[in-house]
Amino acid sequence: MRAFDCKNEGCKTLMEKAPILPDSWCQECITHFDAVKRELKLLKIGYVENPRIVRGLDYYMRTAFEFTTDKLGAQNAVAAGGRYDGLVKALGGPDVAGVGCALGIERLILLLKQHGAEAKTSPVFFAMLGDAAREAALPVMQRLREGGVRVEWDYSSRSLKAQMRRADKKGARAVVILGDQELANGEAQIKDMQTGEQRSVRIDELPRHFVRMDD
Question: What is the CATH number of domain 2-114?
Answer without folding.
Answer: 3.30.930.10
